[in-house]
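2.7 Reproducibility. Because tokenized structures are sensitive to small changes in the input, we list the exact sequence used for Sec-independent protein translocase protein TatB, including any N-terminal residues retained from the expression construct. No trimming or masking was applied before prediction.
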Amino acid sequence: MLDFGFDKLALIGAVALIVIGPERLPKVARTAGHLMGKARRYVADVKAEVNRSMELEELKKMKGQFEDAARDVEQSVQQEVNAATQAFDQTWQSIGGEGSSYEPLPPSYRHPGKKWRVKRGAMPLWYKQQQGVRRHVQSGAARVARFRPPTRY
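Resulting structure tokens (single pass, no recycling of outputs):
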């Protein structure tokens, strides 16, 4: 890169002042600064685009590696399942599983035998009141009226 020191910049400024003149020098300096800013932004955009494309290529490589690893794992799992199935079939054949007439019975319904009414009825009233268990059936309107604050006029 070009390296400009203070002395070189002062020399360039003095020559520009003589050649361009003091009236147009500020406008030319602003234009030159504006063009330099555009050039820097363009270079930064190009660098960012190159970095993004490099990262995209790296991600594609990682994706391919991940897919290969997943395929390998799937194949190994499938091989293990097939081996286990064959071993099970061989064992089943040696036991005589094909000709056996074993069929499990369908499950029958059995009542759980919970006595929740008895349990709720055995609870003392003072405990129900302390825990906030409702002892009487009450309509929704009655419950709202019960807890509505009194109106003051």
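The chain has five helices and no strands.
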